[in-house]
Amino acid sequence: MDTAGKLEAVEQYLLELATQRQLSPHTILAYRRDLAELAALTGAAGWDTVVHADIRRLASKLHAQDLNPRSIARRLSCWRGFFGWLARSTQLAANPVDGVRPPKRARSLPKALSVDDAVHLVSTPSHAHSNPEPADLCNRAMFELMYSSGLRVSELAGLDVAYRKADPSAGAAASLGWIDLDAKEVVVTGKGGKMRKVPAGGHAIEALAAWLAVRPSPSDGSAALFVSVRGARISPRVIQTRLKQHALRVGTTVNVHPHVLRHSFASHVLQSSGDLRAVQEMLGHASITSTQVYTALDFQHLAAAYDKAHPRAKSK
Predict the structure, then answer these.
(1) N or C: which end of the chain has fewer CB within 10 A?
(2) What per-residue string of b and e applies to 87-120 under the rule 16 or more CB within 10 Å gives b?
(3) Which of 152, 215, 246, 268 is catalytic?
(4) Does pLDDT of 26 surpass 80?
(5) Does the CA dihedral 220-199-111-75 come out positive or negative?
(6) Closest Cα partner for 60 from 106, 107, 100, 105?
(7) Would you say residue 313 has pLDDT above 50?
(8) Is 259 annotated in the active site?
(9) Which one from 6, 262, 263, 268 is the annotated catalytic residue?
(10) Tell me, what DSSP letter sits at residue 45?
């Protein structure tokens, strides 16, 4: 079978994906590219002659070309779907991609700021005037609380000033998260609907008190703790944008997003306490495995301290 004949089958498959499964044009384009690559890699061999060993060889070839494991996994997934379609529409004996696994992805470490950089980021005002605007106080409270309590940005955005019961007549649901200034803690509902309490540090409490003194009443009738300049509950996207702009203003040299503060919180608490279980509970991780990645960051911190301080750490 020539390449043109093989690509004709690909176009029939893509047409079905577009019309019946209604995949996006972007996804169809990616599939077309991956299947065209497969047609070229298999040469003159017809689709019905491609076997398991051929796919394994192609996957190994892609890996040898330094293609990252995620990209190889995407190609295999695309190819598997195509051959599955061929098996349903032709006399294809078996799906040759079944059982072929991509190379394992190296687990990347989360990016965390140093203690000094994190403190500088959340404590340095981004305004140059002595009388900060409400938006400045709102930012300071949000950033201090994110770093102080390791909150996800969605958890931060969902906080209310205090717990509010559900009011069906007003269409208001019960609070999913709120602050308790007296107890110096924040209650949030994380992934899987799991609720947890996390301590809030003194600096975060002070920043929250300053914000609450000027916080306007939410225009949407909610009890939202953090509101935008228009008075509506602030969105995670706005928080992300404000944090990035603030980091640029105060001279932070790395790309900062809300999860960097969460990673920094976890890393710094672990460095100080060594209590992995406590960090797991404060982060709201269902499994300790998710938290163990921070032990690698902790080791990096210790290794850096050793290299800097030990008289026999560096070779001549």
Answers:
(1) C
(2) beeeebeebbbeebebeeeeeeebebbeeebbee
(3) 152
(4) yes
(5) negative
(6) 100
(7) no
(8) yes
(9) 262
(10) -
Q: The tokens 């998710």 sit on which residue?
A: 290
What percentage of residues in the chain have a pLDDT greater than 70? 90
Q: What is the pLDDT of residue 91?
A: 67
Q: What is the mean pLDDT of residues 93-117?
A: 80
Kindly tell me the sign of the dihedral angle through the C-alpha atoms of 78, 83, 86, 87.
negative
Q: Which two tokens stand for residue 68?
A: 């990252």
Task: Tell me the pLDDT band of 302, cut-offs 50, 70 and 90.
Answer: very low
Residue 284: CB partners within 8 Å, gap ≥ 6? 152, 188, 190, 191, 194, 196
User: Alpha-carbon distance 102 to 69, whole Å?
Assistant: 6
pLDDT, position 66:
79
**CA dist., res. 197 & res. 313, Å (int):** 42
- Residue 262 a catalytic site member: yes
Single out the catalytic residue among 61, 191, 237, 249.
Answer: 191
